[in-house]
Amino acid sequence: MNNISYILKKIDTLPVKERVIALQQNDFPAVRNILLCMFDENMQWLIPEGNPPYKPSKFDNPGFLFKNIRKFNYFVKGATPIPNKAKREAMFIELLETVDAEEAELIIAAKDKKSPYKNITKKLVQEAFPGLLPT
Q: Is the N or the C terminus of the chain less surrounded, counting Cβ atoms within 10 Å?
């Protein structure tokens, strides 16, 4: 299984008309979750903006984020956050250190409401998945 950053990076390079189809063909809950993190203005992270002090993984962990995307609930307001701020931030760093290095960068960008891919935009996501994002 490819990782989420690989999928989105590949979609980012496609011609305009093929991007929507490619996103729809990769309609996995983990991909949708990352897109929500990037573009849903109502989703509030309980992790400070910017890069936390973490050591990027030296291992290739394809699919790890697919299996662990549910951990995002610990870091988002309104889900099931960990009340202890220090523990929550330590768990976030642990997640970043266990996923593939590119996926860690993707998580940080999504947390900060940024798309690391020039052609993966809110408009594209709305076209591919109507109703996913609040209007």
A: C
User: Which contacts of 58-63 are long-range, i.e. CB under 8 A and separated by 24 or more positions?
Assistant: 58/101, 59/100, 60/100, 61/3, 61/98, 61/99, 61/100, 61/103, 62/1, 62/2, 62/3, 62/6, 62/100, 63/1, 63/2, 63/3
Token readout for 76 is 């988002």
Return phi, psi of residue 12, to 5°. -60, -30
Contact assessment for residue 47 and residue 109, using Cβ atoms and an 8 Å cutoff: no
CA nearest 116: which of 128, 127, 107, 125? 107
Q: Within a 10 A sphere around the Cβ of 51, how many other Cβ atoms?
A: 12
Query: Which pTM does this prediction carry?
Result: 0.91
Q: Which residue has the tokens 């990352």?
A: 34
